[in-house]
Amino acid sequence: CSSLAIGTTSGYRLFSLSSVEQLDQVHESNEIPDVYIVERLFSSSLVVVVSHAKPQQMNVYHFKKGTEICNYSYSSNILSIRLNRQRLVVCLEESIYIHNIKDMKLLKTILDMPPNTTGLCALSINHANSYLAYPGSATSGEIALYDGNTLKMACTIPAHDGPLAALAFSSTGSKLASASEKGTVIRVFSIPGGQKLYEFRRGMKRYVNISSLVFSMDSQFLCASSNTETVHIFKLEHLTDSRPEEPPTWSGYMGKMFQAATNYLPAQVSGMMNQDRAFATVRLNISGQRNICALSTIQKLPRLLVTTSDGHLYIYNLDPQDGGECVLIKKHSLLGSGKMEENKENDLRPPLPQSYAATVARQSTVPSTSTMPGYSEDGGALRGEVIPEHEFATGPVCLDDENEFPPVSI
Question: Mind listing the UniProt keywords for this protein, alphabetically (predicted)?
């Protein structure tokens, strides 16, 4: 969540998300028009682009050098692309292609899939757990879980009654969140076992189309956005943990009563009791537009970012302790020319002093193994990060220099 990629009728753009007040454009390309897929590999210079002009062709670029690494053509239109440091996954309507990202060789083709008209699939960003999830049925909410490292099917998860609409892995690949086309219930499963861990109710009044489902990097929060004006953030708390120091409260007492009651009630009723309402919410000033959300730490504070299909980025403060309504602090336009011009009218709030969030901002832990300096040309949230040596895919030639990952043959 340290950068943002957008496809436009004239090409694509990459932005850094290291600051609330300033949105830096890292790169802009007008070589290929009508870009509808653009995926950047973390903060490296590798970017994968698909255009409406050639919807069956994937182009892989080194945008800093301005060179094309390779391109592949497929039998039908490309619907989505996912990548981590080991795998590049191309999803068509009835097949999925898995490439080795260090040399782009095709490792596996998954055929005989049920029709997947939206190209729904998710790939763990943690390449040590390169699990791939995609719909296992066109009529029910079955999830097919595939191991991208061993290239074998791991399991199937009966997640929902209706067809799937959204899938998302946690940063470690140990949890998988899902939502159906009804969009009323969101479930979280353990990976690779597929046991249900959490169940959240987004709402009962109306069916919605959930367009974005994303975990925070520490897996403590899960965000869901849809074609409505409301964005929901759920907190993944272990409700069954024993807390002897916890002072007795009415809500705590009732919670224990409900927990005990679930042992005696029918599964449908007890399931309803275990569903938690949203921990925090956002009400957008637009409705009916597709949007994508991210939960990120920017300038040491937890933020919710919402990008809408009309070309705007909204940044909200998230209170990780008390939740509630998130406060909008900045709005950026993504469709200006060149570097982003800051408008005074976009300054929706003065800069906030260090607050509650500063004390709970979590520092990313770095394994104390043999390390190499991380490459992050945009100075994003990964600035100064040390990338463990085992994070690199082995290969003959690096993308840019010895410090950039992953090595890819040119």
Answer: Autophagy, Lipid-binding, Membrane, Repeat, WD repeat
Q: Which two tokens stand for residue 392?
A: 């690199």
Cβ density class 133-152: b for 16+ within 10 Å, e for less: bbbbeeebbbbbbbebeeee
For residue 248, pLDDT over 80 is answered with no
Residue pLDDT, tens place only, 250-292: 444 444 454 454 445 444 443 443 455 799 999 998 877 889 9
Helix (H, G, I), strand (E, B) or coil at 329: strand
Pairing of β 221-226 and β 230-235: antiparallel
CA distance 291 to 211: 7
Q: How far is CA 211 from the centre of its chain?
A: 11
Assess contact for 231 and 223: CB atoms under 8 A: yes
Q: So what's the pLDDT on residue 342? A: 40
Q: How far apart are CA 165 and CA 163, in angstroms?
A: 7
Task: Check residue 99 and give its pLDDT.
Answer: 96
Give the residue carrying structure tokens 């832990």. 365
The DSSP symbol for 126 reads -
Give the 3-state DSSP-derived string for 33-83, with helices as H, strands as E and coil as C. CCEEEEEECCCCCEEEEEECCEEEEEEEEECCCCEEEEEEECCCCCCEEEE
In this model, does residue 190 exceed pLDDT 50?
yes
The phi-psi region of residue 288 (left if phi > 0; otherwise alpha if psi is between -120 and 50; otherwise beta) is left
| Positive/negative CA dihedral, 34, 40, 45, 50 | negative
CA distance 81 to 92: 9
Q: What is the pLDDT of residues 8-23, one digit of tens each?
A: 999 999 999 999 999 9
Q: What is the mean pLDDT of residues 137-151?
A: 95
* Strand extents, DSSP E, 217-288: 221-226, 230-235, 280-283
Question: CB neighbours (10 Å) of residue 380?
Answer: 23
What the block records as the tokens of 369 is 């193994």
The answer to whether 191 and 144 have CB atoms below 8 angstroms apart is no
Question: Residue 178 and residue 188: Cα distance in Å, rounded?
Answer: 6
Checking phi first, is residue 373 left (phi over 0); if not, alpha (psi -120 to 50) or beta?
beta
**Interatomic CA distance for residues 48 and 166, integer angstroms:** 22
